[in-house]
Each structure stands twice: as structure tokens, then as C-alpha cells.
Amino acid sequence: MNWERIPLGALQTNCYVVWNEKNQCLVIDPGEEGEKIISFLKDKQLKPLAILLTHAHFDHIGAVDVLRERYSIPLYVHEKEAKWLLDPALNGSQLFMMGEMIRLKPADYVLTSEDTLQIENFSLELFATPGHSPGSISFYIKEMNAVIAGDTLFMGSIGRTDLPGGNHKELLASIHDNLLVLPEETAVLPGHGPETTIGNEMDSNPFLNGF
């Protein structure tokens, strides 16, 4: 199993492409610059199977419909943020006024619980990690020894909680209960910035000290 981090847009939001030996892939959080993602998929000769969202803030969803129209692939999002795709006031594109307001087509699949999501031979464990936003989820891929954590946990930091639906106490509980229980060598692939590991954040993240 292989993966690539592709920073996109003004906020350099990390899009992740995960692919297998059959050159099938998943695209996670395509925030902007759809043509840049398409170019990467062409260069690697990858066949996308689905788009997954860690959450539905504007900087994580901007290229969703570009990819759906190009490849006719389904979109997965948590039920608590399914309506955010259609509403610029909820997804933040209206608040931040960075370019056009984002109104997407409805999701094809709405995730309702913590479970294992199976797409072809991709197996992803879903962890509810609210706090940054109500429907934030993290995707743990055991075979890859990595968790794609969205804006929940960063290298040396945590997600902001001052946006609508954010909750600092809930965010810390999500990290402690669902992420820090993973093996310490697990790679953390965040929504912005470089990757880290669970062990590194347990040892040195100042926001987690004493929790």
C-alpha cells in the first residue's frame, strides 16, 4: 500500500492519495486544485475508486465535484456534515470568502457509525474524532500503519475549535480516546503540515500534556 500527500490551495490543505498494487486508489480530502490531483493520478496511472472526507470544511472539499465529474466515483462523508456540502454557511466558504462559495452535490454515501469501511480491497477503520467539527472522522489503515486524521491532530498541535460546531474538550477526548490508543509507531497524516507519529505527539505535543 502506497500513499502521497498533495498540499493544495491557499491553506495548503493536505489531500492524500492511497493506492494498492492494482493501481486502484482512494482520494481523501481533495480541497482544491482538482486538475493538480488529476495530473497526479494520470502520472501514476491510478484508477480512483472513491473520495473520502475527514470533514466538510471548505478547504477540504473544493475539488470534490471536479473529481466526481471526471471519474464518476462516489463521495463518503459523516452524517453530521452531509448538509455542509450544500451550504456555504456551514462549510465555511461563506465565512472566509476565499473565492467562490462552495455548494456541492449531495454525498453518495453517508457514514453513520464507527466501523470498518471496505472499498474493493481497501479496509479502513473509522474513528469518530469530533471537536474540530461535529462530523470529523479519522481513517485508520492498519496495513499502511497510518491514520489520516484531518484537522484533529497535527505535528505539535491540535485542530482549532473556534469555528461553528467546534469543542475543545471534545477534541481532546477524541484524540485521547481514539488516536493515542493506536500503536506509537503509527504515522499520523494530518490535514495540514507534515506527517508525524502517535509516539511523537504523546511525547512532545504541548496541547496534550497533562490530559
Automatic annotation (TrEMBL):
Superkingdom in the source lineage: Bacteria
Cofactor(s) listed: Zn(2+)
Chain ranges of the Metallo-beta-lactamase domain: 12-192
Stored SUPFAM superfamilies: Metallo-hydrolase/oxidoreductase (SSF56281)
Keywords: Hydrolase, Metal-binding, Zinc
Coiled-coil blocks: none
Protein name stated in the entry: MBL fold metallo-hydrolase
Native source species: Bacillus seohaeanensis
Phylogenetic classification of the source organism: Bacteria, Bacillati, Bacillota, Bacilli, Bacillales
